[in-house]
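Structure (tokenized):
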């Protein structure tokens, strides 16, 4: 580490694990110096100081070699040297993006902080240590489900005073919800659709930073305080609009506003009929790009000129379907998703070559299948066929590549193929927040957590009011045991949306996993929502408060929403608690009921979901005393996990299998599997070594010498004040 006194000398730029200190000509990675030639250091400094801004080859050459004539390969050679130092690549850039025939752009989020001579920031360093548990409430799948779903306004999560938004940025814009001027408010789908079409066209322009719909949808049309909203979204310009539809006549008003001064830059009205209104979105996007001096490539110009389909009725059906999809995605409204699928199908029936409708149909089908609603296998097969058909119709359609990526991600669990599809989408639309977030989640599944965080944070700059994305970032930091960072992201997710129950649950778990603070975790999980009650049931079981856990569990209605297929059945939880309380007859009866439910799920699932179902079966068989059958079910789950390419969710399931072996009294199988899982990065969200002292799952083998050896190995994680764990028999009636 570099030591020094505390005299202030300037600023530093922080990105990922790196810190760049210009005054010291110093680049640090996790506090350790990284070697760079002076020229390569200057190149990195130039790019970082202009983060988000395209720097042309000419600009860079002039700045680096102001008086010299250099060879053509001098700049690429230095770029390659910087990439090597950062562990970056030109094929999948995390830091430096090559813009063919134009130049280079630094794409990672950058924080600007004050430093002292040591190159450290002025905040005290926070000690961090690892952690995570096998959850009875479906935490593992919940992580993945949300995974379905910062510039100036980037939250100050690291306690810094300024962010990369102070550096030159590409032109930035947010498209706020358009005002619905229609007498018939049922036309809301049409107004929202026109806004979405314009936003999508703007996002196709590579030189623009366009904020995602997820973030802008939270605002009202024509708000009073544009300056505050622009600051929250991290943009300089805002596009407002209104739509009025009477009969077959449509009037669209749009205005581009400089949010810093409230000055109107450009405004126009478009009067069209329903037969020719589709196409306005491209005209508006081109005018906005011109006003913001954004240059369009030939391919971008071509895409702006494309329309939906030649059939106005099919286009109208498409907008209705999009409205249903957004409603289903935002509110987990499965009825809306089914309605969306039916409406997309009507659209493609009228316009069979409507590629965008085929692609979005595929996405809706994949989403419904991922939520485990309906005939999952049929939905997944249909989603893939529809995505492939969309690509056949329009090979460079971003939505089609995204749809295919989700088929590979959610359906086949083929993560390299999904990564390829999402990268293809980003090559066509580099500022697509959904594609960046999806790529980050894929990197996470592949165990590349630094790359996942970089991609997710890049997505957050384009979607800075997305509470779900903040939650996903928190879970990713939790995976690598960075508890302080995880808790900051969870708190930010809750600041954006106090109703984000997944973030509230995850924050409570982070408290427990960081230090073993069960009381603090319980306090953080208060609330009447079934999800929070289930979280408290989990914590009460950890504290061996079985009677209190049963009382909370009994208060939760046994519905599909409260106990979806990817969580333990309510009957299984009740059966377990009755067994712990000594009521064997009632406990066994409930376990038999749960076993029937779990076995009924097996034919519907595949991959990790099927492994989870086999774990449920194993748990129930073991509780019923059928150890041999339970061990067979564990073996089925283990075989599926061994085949999986997942390096994230899978680890939690491995801890689960270890727990099942412990329940069967097989320390010889439990301890090596548990040790292996805890030793890998990524086990964070579902478990923590601190739980070795807390979780009753390990009580059957707690005194086995092999488990005692494991406790010694992880002794540094032992919760403060812990001397012994009460046995289930002595704590059962608490």
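Design, position by position:
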């Amino acid at each position: 580490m570099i030591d020094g006194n505390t005299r202030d000398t300037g600023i530093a730029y922080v990105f990922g694990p790196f810190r760049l200190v210009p005054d010291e000509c110093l680049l640090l990675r996790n506090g350790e110096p990284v070697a760079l030639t002076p020229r390569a250091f200057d190149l990195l400094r130039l790019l970082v100081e202009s983060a988000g801004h395209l720097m042309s080859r000419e600009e860079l050459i002039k700045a680096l070699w102001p008086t010299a004539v250099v060879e053509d390969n001098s700049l690429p050679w230095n770029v390659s040297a910087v990439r090597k130092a950062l562990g970056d690549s030109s094929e999948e850039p995390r830091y430096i993006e090559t813009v063919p025939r134009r130049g280079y752009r630094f794409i990672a989020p950058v924080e600007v902080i004050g430093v002292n001579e040591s190159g450290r920031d002025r905040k005290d360093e926070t000690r961090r240590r690892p952690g995570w548990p096998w959850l009875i409430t479906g935490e593992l799948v919940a992580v993945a489900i949300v995974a379905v779903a910062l510039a100036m306004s980037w939250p100050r999560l690291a306690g810094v005073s300024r962010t990369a938004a102070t550096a030159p940025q590409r032109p930035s814009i947010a498209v706020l919800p358009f005002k619905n001027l229609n007498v018939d408010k049922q036309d809301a789908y049409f107004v929202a659709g026109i806004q979405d079409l314009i936003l999508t066209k703007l996002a196709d322009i590579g030189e623009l930073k366009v904020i995602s719909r997820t973030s802008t949808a939270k605002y009202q049309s024509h708000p009073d305080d544009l300056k505050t909203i622009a600051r929250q979204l991290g943009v300089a310009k805002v596009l407002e609009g209104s739509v009025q539809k009477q009969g077959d006549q449509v009037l669209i008003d749009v205005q581009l506003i400089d949010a810093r001064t409230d000055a109107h830059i450009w405004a126009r009205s478009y009067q069209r009929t329903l037969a020719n209104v589709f196409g306005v979105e491209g005209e508006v996007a081109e005018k906005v790009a011109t006003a913001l001096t954004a240059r369009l490539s030939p391919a971008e110009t071509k895409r702006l000129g494309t329309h939906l389909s030649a059939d106005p009725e099919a286009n109208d059906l498409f907008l209705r379907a999009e409205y249903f999809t957004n409603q289903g995605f935002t509110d987990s409204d499965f009825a809306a998703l089914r309605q969306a699928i039916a409406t997309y199908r009507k659209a493609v029936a009228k316009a069979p070559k409507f590629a965008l409708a085929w692609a979005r149909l595929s996405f809706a089908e994949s989403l419904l299948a991922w939520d485990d609603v309906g005939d999952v296998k049929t939905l997944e097969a249909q989603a893939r066929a529809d995505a492939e058909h969309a690509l056949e119709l329009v090979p460079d359609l971003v939505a089609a590549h995204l749809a295919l990526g989700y088929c590979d991600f959610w359906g086949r669990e083929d993560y390299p193929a999904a990564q390829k599809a999402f990268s293809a989408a980003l090559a066509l639309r580099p500022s697509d927040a959904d594609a960046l977030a999806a790529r980050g989640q894929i990197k996470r599944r592949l165990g590349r957590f630094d790359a996942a965080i970089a991609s997710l944070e890049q997505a957050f700059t384009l979607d800075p009011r997305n509470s779900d994305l903040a939650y996903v970032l928190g879970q990713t930091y939790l995976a690598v045991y960075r508890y302080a960072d995880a808790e900051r992201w969870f708190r930010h997710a809750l600041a954006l949306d106090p109703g984000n129950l997944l973030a509230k649950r995850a924050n409570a778990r982070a408290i427990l996993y960081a230090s073993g603070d069960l009381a603090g975790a319980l306090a953080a999980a208060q609330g009447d929502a079934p999800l929070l009650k289930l979280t408290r049931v989990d914590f009460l079981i950890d504290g061996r408060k079985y009677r209190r856990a049963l009382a909370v569990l009994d208060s939760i209605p046994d519905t599909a929403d409260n106990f979806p297929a990817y969580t333990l059945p309510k009957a299984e939880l009740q059966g377990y608690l009755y067994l712990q309380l000594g009521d064997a007859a009632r406990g066994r009866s409930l376990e038999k009921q749960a076993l029937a439910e779990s076995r009924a799920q097996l034919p519907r699932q595949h991959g990790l979901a099927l492994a989870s179902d086999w774990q449920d079966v194993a748990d129930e068989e073991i509780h019923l005393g059928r150890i041999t059958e339970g061990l067979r079910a564990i073996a089925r789950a283990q075989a599926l996990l061994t085949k999986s390419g997942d390096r994230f969710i899978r680890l939690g399931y491995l801890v689960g299998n270890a727990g099942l072996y412990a329940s069967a009294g097989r320390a010889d199988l439990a301890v090596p599997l548990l040790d292996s899982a805890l030793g890998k990065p990524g086990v964070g969200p579902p478990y923590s070594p601190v739980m070795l002292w807390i979780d009753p799952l390990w009580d059957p083998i707690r005194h086995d010498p092999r488990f005692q050896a494991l406790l010694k190995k992880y002794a540094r994680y032992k919760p403060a004040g812990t001397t012994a764990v009460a046995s289930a028999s002595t704590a059962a009636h608490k």
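Reviewer-requested clarification: The chain is about 55% helix and 10% strand. The two ends are 50 Å apart (CA to CA).
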